[in-house]
Structures are given as C-alpha cells and as structure tokens.
Amino acid sequence: MSLLIVGSVAFDTIETPTTSRDNILGGSATFASVAAAFFHPVQVVAVVGGDWEKSHTQRLEKRGIDVSGIEIVKDGKTFRWSGKYLENMNDRETLDTQLNVLGDFQPKLPDKFRRAKYVLLANGSTKTQHEVVDQLLGPELVIADTMNLWINIEHDELLRLMKRIDGLVLNDSEAKMLTGEANTVTAGRKLLTMGPKFVIVKKGEHGAFFFAEYETYIVPAFPTENLVDPTGAGDSFAGAMLGYIASVGNTDPETIKRSLAYGAIVAAAAVEGFSIEQLEQLNRDTVEQRMSEFRKMTSF
Amino acid sequence: MSLLIVGSVAFDTIETPTTSRDNILGGSATFASVAAAFFHPVQVVAVVGGDWEKSHTQRLEKRGIDVSGIEIVKDGKTFRWSGKYLENMNDRETLDTQLNVLGDFQPKLPDKFRRAKYVLLANGSTKTQHEVVDQLLGPELVIADTMNLWINIEHDELLRLMKRIDGLVLNDSEAKMLTGEANTVTAGRKLLTMGPKFVIVKKGEHGAFFFAEYETYIVPAFPTENLVDPTGAGDSFAGAMLGYIASVGNTDPETIKRSLAYGAIVAAAAVEGFSIEQLEQLNRDTVEQRMSEFRKMTSF
Which of A204, A242, B62, B210 is deepest in the core (most CB within 10 A)? Predict the structure, then answer.
C-alpha cells in the first residue's frame, strides 16, 4: 500500500539556549518522510533549489525514501528558515524566512504517486495541499497537518480542505484558535463537525488527543530528558503515524491507537538531536524497543 | 488495612470566570478523603471551628469516612480560603486566607489511627506533616502532598520530611522550583535522590508522572469538557490513589499504575463541580465505568 508525503524541504538555522546550527536539513516533508520510513517505504514530493546536493538525496534514499518526486529548480534556492528557541524550549521566534523555490511550488505528482493509498499533506500552504488532493486517484486515507500561519492567511481554503480530507492534525493552541473554544477537548470535537473524519490535537511535551465520532484516544508524550531541538517534532509525529498505518494497511481503532504511540516515540527521538540526526541513529528495532518501554510506562 | 488522611478542612469562596460560590466545603483532607472513600474506608484527622455544623459531619460520614479524628475547636473558626480562577481556569489568585484554627493545628492521632498502614499527609504545613509521622506506629506507605507555599517557607523541613516518607506528590512547576531543573523528567528523577522511594509529579490537565528507581509511569488526565472549578483536583488525585492502593493492600507496579489512573478519573470528576458536589454524585460503579472508558482511550 503506497505511502505519499508532500511538504517542504528546508535548510534550517536554529538557535537554542545552549547552542546553534546553520543550514541543517529540515522541512516538514523531510522529518515526516524519515519518520514514516521506519515503518514503510515512502514516496516524497517537494521542491529544492540549485543548492541541493547529491549528499542530501543520498541521505534520504538511505532511509528507504523514493526521492524521484523531489523537484530541483536549478536556478533557485531551497526554502530557508531561521528560528530561535527561548529558555523553556517550547516557545520560539522566527528570525528569518526565505521561501525561495517553495514560494512558487506547484506539486506535480508523478503518475506512479497519484495512486498512493496513504497520503500525508505535511505542514505547508493549504493551497498546495489542495493541489495535491486534486491529483490523487482514489486514496484510502488523506491526513493534512496545518499550523497557525495557514489558519491566519488561508482560513477559507483550510475550511474547504477540511471537507476533502480524512484527518486533520494541528496543535492545541491552533485547535482553539480555529474554533474559538477554550477547552482542548471541546475544540477537538468541534473541528470534527467541520469536515474531517478524525482530528489529532498535538500538545507538544504533553502528548496528543485523537477525536473521531465514536472514539477519543489519548497518548502521552514519550518522556525525554535530552531535549536538543524541538524542530520537526510535529512533522515526525504525523509521519510516523501514517507510516505505521500504511504498514498495517488498515485504520482500525487498534491500529490508530498504536500509530499515535509510534508517533510519540519517533517525535521524542526527533527532538533529541538537531535536524534528522537522532532519527538516523534509530531503526525499526530500536523503535520497537522504545514501544515496549512506552507500553510498560502507560498500561494499567 | 487501615487508611489515614491528615490535612485541612476549609470553607472556600471561589470565583471562576462564569460564576462564584461562597463558603463551600473544601480543604485538602476533605477532597482527599472523599476521593479515597470510593475505594476503602477512610480515617481522617483535621481541625475545624465552632462554625462547623453537624450537616458537614454527616456529609462526610455518608461517604464512609470516620470523622472521629476531626477536632472541633468551639471558640475558633474554620480555615477559610478565597480564590479567583483566571480565564484559562489554570492560573489562580488567592484573594484571602484566614488560617483560623488551622494556624495552631497540632494533630493528635487517636490511638486506633496511629497504627494505620496507609497514610496520606494531604497538602498542608510541612511541620504538621512531621508531627503526624512522629505519631505513626509502623505504617507501610506514607505519601506527602506539598505545594509552592511550603517549598518557600518550610524548605528545610520539607527536605527533612522527604527522608521520612515513601512518596512525594507535587506539581510540575513545584518540582522544577524545588530542584532548579527546567525539564520535568529530570526534576522528578532528581527529587528521587533526595529521599522518597517514589515521586509523583502532577501536570494538571496534562496528567501525571510517577518516578521510582526502576520505573517511570505516565498517566494522562481523564478528558473533561465540563471544567467547573479546579479546586481540589490534586487532593482528589492523591486521595483516590492511596484509597485504591489501600483497597488492594500492596504497592506492586501494576497496583501503582492502576492507582494513578483512578487518581486521574476522580480528579477529573472533582473539577466537574464546586466543592465535593460532583464526587458525591459518583460511586465505585460509576468510577469503574470511567476506568473502562479510560483504558479504551489509552491502551495501545
């Protein structure tokens, strides 16, 4: 069952209270693809510039990612984002954003990708997410990840997208912003009435909620003492979730609950290093080992 | 296996963004006792003033609580606390505190209470908590609940208490304050090195962590859309936890994990009403029903 991820590839410059790193591999499609690839082969669609090097391609291929859908715009530059995390490592300031080739990105899905059964519209412009849905031929599950930026500047497009997808992923403050509700559970349930079959509300270091008409699931975050760089945690969560679902090939309640736990585990690994560096240290076996620990911590 | 709870009984005046209530039954021992009594008979020790009415006694007795240890100081007044919850229902301001008879409280445990096997030192002065420990004869498990006030004004007594108890309960900001650590997991583990066999870090609407030398457990909060008054949530959590442990009669890992889940369920019920009003609507059967739902929401 093929798995397609469409989103951004970026070069990030990150400052944390203790250290900083320049031009490291980032972007929603990058984190989501590497996270999903623990569980299932991944097809990725994104755009990069002439500054994209062969070593980047190889790095993704090494994780089992089909990069033939990464469009290289030779005379353009890859999207760049620069941010600074505050002392609490939760709040961050954007220092600089250069959209570059991402600004004109119009995803063209190769024919073989259009029949993907499992699709993640990783964080990115809602308009781009619509363009992907337009090209899909009979997907079984489409999940879209969004954020405050798109809620603000593409509000109507987002409301329209919510009626075209199966699952919406966003964080708790965004769920509250989009619904005007102060209670996270109330906000999540209200979003359900706006189109999607299920809604996942991420709560950062506090885990996530899953809301569907007849089900509510809760997954705590996998605990870590080694928070290096929170960038990409949400993308990794969504990627791991969809990767696991694709590997099982169904969306039964037990599969969904397990996918949330895998999402939590891979997201925790992502924040233990800059870029995808810590994810590259893991494989399916080490993920399964953490899964056993997680089950022991949470089952009652 | 007898269960003893020592703490405060109060008359609370509460303002929330939508409503307010005057002189309602509150206090750490009140919430903890009512919560524990879902699972096991409770012996409570506290002090009240001449304004304490027979109807209050009856209200607690009706829940299966032995109130013979509530000392009535005829010419004094019961402890009064007045607080205001802000728009987010998490932060609160104390408007007024009248310690009254609580200020001179020196708990005298009736002989039959001194041999209690399970003891909760509900939130209250650390000095008082020490006086209770002084009087115990061979308890199997002593848990102390504390808060920022005591960390600030009875810091050394608290450090000393931590070496005399089995379990410490406090919230995440308090754990960070007491250890100087910014990461909740790191703070919890550091507290373990300061005396107690286990540490429970409450995270309000995000659940709780349990740390012991070889175990870490995580329990999410039981989701509620009906947050009426957060007062007493932490007391109810600790009370339900110890009540369940006493009912089982051991502190095996599985018992502890289940006790955390019961704590989360009863705490969620406590916040769905003012005072103990919502807890009074429940019984063990309704608690078990929520337990089944909770397991379904969280198991993977």
Answer: A242
d(CA A101, CA A37): 25
CB < 8 Å to A87, chain B: 182
- Model confidence over A128-159: pLDDT tens digits? 999 999 999 999 999 999 999 999 999 999 99
3-state secondary structure of A21: strand
Of A216, A261, A295, the CB nearest to B223: A216
Pick the CATH number of A3-298 from 3.40.630.10, 3.40.1190.20, 3.40.50.720, 3.30.565.10: 3.40.1190.20
Interchain pair A183, B257: CB under 8 A = no
Beta-strand runs (E) in chain A: 3-6, 10-15, 20-26, 42-49, 65-73, 79-85, 92-98, 118-121, 141-145, 167-171, 198-202, 208-212, 216-219
For residue B139, the distance in angstroms to the closest alpha carbon of chain A comes to 26
Say which residues have a Cβ less than 8 Å from residue A169's Cβ, sequence separation at least 6.
A143, A144, A145, A146, A199, A200, A202, A234, A237, A238
Give the integer Cα–Cα distance in Å for B231 and B82: 11
Tell me which chain B residues have a C-beta less than 8 angstroms from the C-beta of A258: 300
Q: Where are the domains of chain B?
A: 3-147+226-298
In B, minimum Cα distance to A190 occurs at B225
In chain B, alpha helices (H) = 28-36, 54-61, 111-114, 126-135, 148-153, 155-161, 172-179, 184-192, 233-248, 253-270, 284-298
The complex's ipTM? 0.93
The answer to whether residues A6 and A131 touch, using CB atoms and an 8 Å cutoff, is no
* Cross-chain residue pair A218–B223, CB shorter than 8 Å: yes
- Is residue B121 within 8 A of residue B158, CB to CB? The reply is no
A232 pLDDT above the threshold of 90: yes
Domain B3-147+226-298 has CATH 1.10.10.10: no
Residue A93 sits at φ, ψ, to 5 deg, of -110, 135
Q: How far is B27 from chain A (nearest CA, A)?
A: 26
C-alpha distances (whole Å) from B187 to each of A136, B184, B200 are 48, 5, 11
CB contact under 8 A, B300 and A223: no
**Interface contact B219, partner A, CB < 8 A:** yes
Query: Which residues from chain B sit within 8 angstroms of residue A179, using beta carbons?
Result: none
pTM for the structure as a whole = 0.95
Question: Is B173 part of the contact surface with chain A (CB cutoff 8 Å)?
Answer: no
Q: What is each CA distance from B172 to B177, B208, B222, B240, in whole angstroms? A: 9, 9, 18, 19
* Residue A124 pLDDT greater than 80, yes or no: yes
